[in-house]
Structures are given as structure tokens and as C-alpha cells.
Amino acid sequence: MLNKKTVRDIEVKNKKVLLRVDFNVPLDRETKSIITSDKRIVESLKTIEYLISAGAKVILCSHIGKTGQNISLRPVAVHLSELLQKNIMFLNDCIGHEVKEAVSNMKSSDVILLENLRNHIEEENNDENFAKELASLAQIFVNDAFGTVHRAHASTEGITKFLPSVCGFLIEKEIKALDQAINNPVRPLVAIIGGAKVSSKIAVLTNLIDKVDTILIGGAMAYTFQKSLGHKVGQSLVENDKLEVATQIMQKAFDSGVEFILPIDNIVSNEISENAIVQTALATDIPEDLMGVDIGEKTIELFKNEILTAGTVVWNGPVGVFEIEKFANGTRQIALALADSNAITIIGGGDSAAAVEKFGVADKMTHISTGGGASLEFMEGKKLPGIEALEDK
Ligand code: AMP
Q1: Is 332 known to be catalytic?
Q2: Which CATH architecture describes the domain 178-379?
Q3: How many Å lie between the centroid of ligand 1 and the Cα of residue 372?
């Protein structure tokens, strides 16, 4: 349950409101000026529109890309203007004299977008003076950037020391969906955990074992589990230093009465490329010179049955190298099974969100998180500093 104040709980009329959004959208590789998915912008509109209609002076800030890349948010300003059907003033920096001047001239319902916060190294360092500078622009801080709430940065955590701070509708929606799925689910609760490495999913698996009824394991991380059971995994990606942890996780699942289901067959190949030759192998017996790249047909059927009888499914991580068409079938079939099921379906951002988009079933999901890292840390049971720092109800 989210026990934090939201924009509904404060008076914003004629007030300068600094709204931290997540406009970290993908841009085309060449010109870095064409937005290739505007999902995060669209997801921010509800709070922006609310503040505009409530008569606030809306100052938007966000990061885009990494510190040092100096990518501009200007294309976002243009697109946002179109989406809102409203003129947006774009400023070339996020702090400094010119920004202060522009903000002081704002009228009720005006919208300004500040330039990329990460053009200043102080943002990620959670520098106090930088946070204070940002805070000096406004009277109220609203955080709606779910994608960065797992980071204590100047614009997500530091700033809350200087302004009354509440959350927006996107954070509210994300936490509600994730919290209900993990802590108060319609059962059976099934987690599908895939992706490349066991090491990055140890915390989530450990936490989920106390919550879920069934865990389905896919992706390269399955081979570390398979190897720890003494199976032949050929050239598959394995983390040899995590074999012991893999055994412990399976033991914990067994002790807790959680069904822990590994693939029973795999698509295997000699290389990771579009030209690879593929065949199916039993998960216990991947040929010496081949590697697992996807789950096989029997595993797909097994996983589908679990999905179709689930009350809630949470999905984090593709079950194969879905970026390559020949290895994408498992991930596609999982996405389609989720679309067909009556379960509440929660997609944990990142690659799993990209997969449901790619296979055309995004609109069939109950909730697709806008924050891969943030939703993973939520599922790990961690406190999210960008949310913790906001005012309690
Ligand atoms: P993660 O960031 O840990 O969720 O990992 C996502 C990545 O795992 C994707 O880029 C997939 O291509 C990759 N992946 C999934 N299955 C495999 C596999 N069998 N072998 C190698 N990489 C895989």
C-alpha cells in the first residue's frame, strides 16, 4: 500500500510545482533526435494535465541517457507540445540565472521543460547544493518518475529535504499494481523469471519464494540451475560461481512448498546469430558443442499450463534470446499465453516490456511497468529511496 501524499492532497493553484518525470525515452541511434517509443511521455501526461488544469505553474525536469552523454531533451519538448496541444517552453539548462528568470515569469498553467538533469554530474551524486538549486525554482516538488525511484539522486531524493514533496499518478499506479500483485495477489501467484544472469536475480528470487506459489525459470539463468543439478549444459551461459546459490534457492523453494519449475527442453544452437542452425535438446543433456538459446516446445506447454491456471502472473526477463527471431519463440509464446489468460498480468519493465510490445500484446496486459530497475527492486522487497523520501499521508 502506498501511504504517501499525492498531488491530490496538496493545493497547487498558482504555485510553482517542480515535477520530476521520467522522459528517459529511447532515441534513434543516428540523429539522437527521433523518439522511438513515447510510452514514458504518455504515461506522464495524467499528472501533467492534472497540474495544468489545477492552475499550477508546471516546471518539468528529467534525465535522458547517462551522465556525460549530454543528450538533449529538446525532442521531448516538441513531442510533448503536440501531445498536450499546448506550447511548452524549453530551457537550455536546469539550473542557473536564465532558468530562474524564465520561471519567475511563469503564469498559472504554463509549462516549462528543463534540459537534461544529467548534464550535471551533481545529479547522480545527489549533491546537496545542486538539489537546493533545483528546489529554489519551486514551492512544491512532485515526483512521478517511477523509473528512477530506486536511485537516491538530487532530483529524486536530495530535493525532498528542501520542499514539500508528494508523488504523482504514475508512481501511485505503479506501486498499486506491483504491491497488489506481490503482497495481496489473486492466487495462484506465478512468477516467470528469465534473463541473462542468476546473479542479478538472486535477490528477487529469494524474496519471491516467500510470496509466490510457483516460479518458472527461463533464459540463460536456467543453465546455472540446470548445471547445479548435474545436468549437461554444453556451451550455455553459466555462472560457475553461482552454482551453490542456485542450489540454495531451489532448496528454499522446496522447503517453502513453492513449485520451482526449470525448463525440460531447450532450443540449442552453435552460435548466437540470425544464421545459426537450431535444434531441440533435453534440458538434462545439451550437446557438448552447443548452447541453450531458448526454451523448447515441451517447456512452452508446461509454462503455458501454469499461466492459464494462474490468478496473477508477474514476469521479469525474457526466456530466450528474443532479439533474434530464431530464438524468440519461447518468449513470444509466453507473451501470447499471458494475453490469453484471465490472470492479472504484471510486466516488470525492461526487456519483458519490450517483448510484449514486440509481439503485439502490450494492450492485453494488466500493467506494464515503466521502470525495469525500479520494479525489480520493488519485487526484491527493497525500499525505494525516491518514494521513501516523500511525505506520508
Ligand atoms: P536481463 O537483463 O538479465 O533480464 O537479461 C536480458 C537478456 O538476456 C536479453 O538480452 C536476452 O537476449 C538474454 N538471454 C535470454 N536467454 C538467453 C540465453 N539462453 N543465452 C544468452 N542470453 C540470453
Answers
A1: no
A2: 3-Layer(aba) Sandwich (3.40)
A3: 14
The response to whether residue 168 sits with its C-beta less than 6 Å from ligand 1 reads no
Share the mean pLDDT of the chain: 97
Q: Could you tell me if the CB of 318 is within 6 A of ligand 1?
A: yes
The verdict on the CB of residue 368 being under 6 Å from ligand 1 is: no
pLDDT band at 235 (very low <50, low <70, confident <90, very high): very high
Q: Does any ligand 1 atom lie closer than 6 A to the CB of residue 292?
A: yes
Using pLDDT thresholds of 50, 70 and 90, give the confidence band for residue 29.
Answer: confident
Q: Which CATH architecture has domain 7-170?
A: 3-Layer(aba) Sandwich (3.40)
How much is the pLDDT for 336? 98
| pTM to 2 decimal places | 0.96
Site of grid cell 546469430: 273
Choose the residue to mutate in 351, 352, 369, 380 for probing ligand 1, maximizing ligand atoms within 8 Å of C-beta.
Answer: 351
User: Using an 8 Å Cβ cutoff, are 142 and 19 in contact?
Assistant: yes
pLDDT of res. 96: 97
Asked if 108 contacts 14 with a C-beta cutoff of 8 angstroms, the reply is yes
pLDDT of residue 32: 84
Residue nearest atom 1 of ligand 1, based on CA coordinates: 195
Q: Do domains 7-170 and 178-379 have the same CATH topology?
A: yes
Q: Catalytic residue among 350, 371, 372, 386, which?
A: 350
Name the 3-class secondary structure at 286. coil
Strands, E assignment, the chain: 16-20, 57-61, 89-90, 111-113, 140-143, 165-167, 189-193, 214-217, 259-261, 265-269, 278-282, 291-295, 312-316, 344-347, 367-368
* Residue 64 reports pLDDT greater than 80: yes
Cα separation, 299 vs 315, whole angstroms: 16
**What type of residue sits at position 328?**
A
pLDDT on residue 214:
98
69-94 per-position pLDDT tens digit: 999 999 999 999 999 999 999 999 99
Question: What is the domain partition of the chain in residue ranges?
Answer: 7-170, 178-379
